[in-house]
Design a protein that fits this description.
alpha/beta, TIM Barrel, eight-stranded parallel beta barrel, 37% helix, binds 6-O-phosphono-beta-D-galactopyranose
Length: 526
């Protein structure tokens, strides 16, 4: 048996049969406890929650500008937080100066802080920075003939600044920000025409940034259309009265699959060495017990997660999704050209978000529930939950990595993982302020160790990691600023009050050290 990095024999007299990697205790001295060379460490954001600059520089309205904070709604009720009606949209349009109730309009004001923010990321040693392009900053209405040059210049500056520091931008083309005009005039992704509008947007940004951006993601959490159809697909339920809304959702989803394949084609034609990934919400369900009925239930819940990445990775709809369409009488119109595109242009890698795991059981009446990333599941008695009730499960990340890699045999990229916390600024003793966010540090340390083991013991190919979020931003589900994820604190409260000044948290220095040692410091106490 050999230790992979230097092929030095380890004479332990045993052939590990059931463990396919090198268990820790059998590793040779040369097996470095750090991440592979070239591993991309960084952090993630999205324009809809981070950028702000609402109405500035020629930007048009996007669906996120109509997302209202609802303090009266229970924090675990993600549906109520994300359900937007036509009446809500009218209300939002009638109040263009209201930043208090529409926090995504200000986000963290990256639009005015980008230089300072990228300098902070560089100070931590980032190799990659995930952000998204706000479609309505480039095509303010979505169906415009010409792009908005001022919007294009904004991202030119951002990408150039990243490159100056040696940071690779990882760019999401669509992260909960379809232009509002497409919703009101065309019903957005339900309408086939939106594929063409998106194509125009992608051709513009692909051509413009082909020498600046190497890593692209098409649709953030492509599966989320089923959970929050307005945010992801621009679908307003009350505009589809009399129609089967599940059919509407899957029709819109089909259009996104076709558009994603088309985007992959365009990006590769402009820059053959670029890499395009799908982006999946990696929900992880365990059977609540070993009762076969519970195991089957968990398997079904996992299929409901994988059906989207199966389509984007294999380029064809999985049989089980097609049978759902058939068995539920869902008539999804699929043109041959869509199916051919999907088959010809599957993604190059699989990216995903991972925050927590949950449990599933056949019979769950009366059992305790846990909230989570736009899902609820059964509470796992072995796990602790965050202040928002999300069950922390670092081993679940390793399980997810193994499952995804075994299923797809393509490189993986963790593009979201983190912990939302309530925090308080305290004096740092040097004339400024900081946050002692030990909970973030513990969360990350535990997850990073699992990533390391997935790479070395399980043979997973992992390109990199971007934490969610590297700098505090507005929460997607609850629209709160007080749900803080970052290594950098942004002085702004839930009502948008504050200076928007940035402060380095304790985790800032900790993550910097992780990056400079390429993870070796995670194992110093071992
Ligand atoms: C993911 C989204 C992100 C992000 C994250 C955390 O589903 O892709 O946009 O917000 O979840 O969720 P929240 O902001 O609701 O805490």
């Amino acid at each position: 048996m050999h230790c992979p990095p230097c092929l030095r024999a380890i004479d332990n007299g045993e052939i590990p049969f059931f463990n396919f990697g090198i268990p820790k205790e059998q590793r040779g001295e040369c097996m470095k406890k750090q991440f592979p060379e070239g591993f991309l460490w960084g952090g993630a954001t999205a324009a809809n929650q981070f950028e702000g600059g609402f109405g500035e520089g020629g930007k048009g309205w996007s669906v996120s500008d109509t997302a209202r904070i609802r303090p009266e709604v229970d924090l675990s009720d993600y549906r109520a937080h994300n359900d937007v009606t036509s009446r809500d949209i009218e209300e939002a349009l009638a109040h263009p100066l209201d930043f208090e109730h529409y926090p995504k309009r200000h986000g963290s004001d990256f639009y005015h802080h980008w230089k300072e923010d990228i300098a902070l990321l560089a100070e931590m040693g980032f190799g990659v920075f995930r952000l998204s392009i706000a479609w309505s900053r480039i095509y303010p209405n979505g169906d415009d003939e010409e792009p908005n040059e001022e919007g294009l210049k904004f991202y030119d500056q951002v990408f150039d600044e990243c490159r100056n520091y040696g940071i690779e931008p990882l760019v999401t083309l669509s992260h909960y920000e379809p232009p509002l005009h497409l919703v009101l005039k065309y019903d957005c992704w339900y309408n086939r025409k939106t594929i063409g509008f998106f194509e125009r947007f992608v051709r513009t940004v692909s051509n413009r940034y082909k020498d600046k951006v190497k890593y692209w993601l098409t649709f953030n959490e492509v599966d989320s259309m089923i959970r929050h159809p307005y945010t992801t697909g621009g679908l307003v339920r009350d505009r589809f009265e009399g129609k089967n809304f599940e059919e509407v959702i899957f029709q819109a989803m089909h259009h996104q699959f076709a558009a994603s394949a088309l985007a992959t084609k365009i990006l590769h034609e402009d820059n053959p060495s670029c890499m395009v990934g799908c982006m999946l919400t990696k929900l992880t369900f365990y059977p609540y017990t070993c009762k076969p009925e519970d195991v089957l239930e968990a398997q079904m819940r996992m299929r409901a997660v994988y059906c989207y990445s199966d389509t984007q990775v294999f380029g064809v709809y999985p049989a089980y999704l097609l049978s759902r369409f058939k068995n539920h009488g869902l008539n999804i119109v699929m043109e041959n050209e869509d199916l051919e595109l999907m088959k010809s242009w599957p993604v190059d890698f699989i990216s995903f978000s991972y925050y927590m795991s949950g449990c599933a059981a056949k019979e769950s009446r009366g059992m305790d529930l846990a909230s989570g990333n736009t899902v609820t599941s059964l509470k796992n008695p072995y796990l602790q939950a965050s202040e928002w009730g999300w069950q922390k499960d670092p081993i679940g990340l390793r399980i997810s990595l193994v499952d995804l890699y075994d299923r797809y045999r393509k490189p993986l990229f963790i593009v979201e993982n983190g912990l939302g916390e309530k925090e308080e600024l305290v004096p740092d003793g040097k004339g400024s302020y900081t946050v002692n966010d030990d909970a973030h540090i513990d969360y990350y340390r535990d997850h990073f160790r699992q990533m390391h083991d997935a790479i070395y013991e399980d043979g997973v190919e992992l390109l990199g990691y971007t934490s969610w979020a590297c700098i505090d931003l507005v929460s997607e589900s609850t629209k709160q600023m007080s749900k803080r994820y970052g290594f950098v604190y942004v002085d702004c409260d839930d009502l948008g009050r504050g200076s928007f000044m940035r402060y380095r948290k304790k985790s800032f220095y900790w993550y910097k050290h992780v990056i400079e040692t390429n993870g070796a410091c995670l194992f110093e106490s071992e």
